[in-house]
Predict the structure.
Amino acid sequence: KGEDARMTFKMGNETLPIVQLEVGKNKLSEFKGRDYFKLFSAISRVDECNQEDRYHWSKVRKEMKS
């Protein structure tokens, strides 16, 4: 649930989770690292965060570890 997630965003009055995907080894492409997605569970939709949002969530995640 959005309220229980460690990383969230607001859409209207609803709190929704941000999902972090970590790719360690990828044989299909050169991508290796983390990506962030906005999860809209009520409509079964996942949207990839844009570059600005990825940078923001990466900073948030680092601060949470400290």
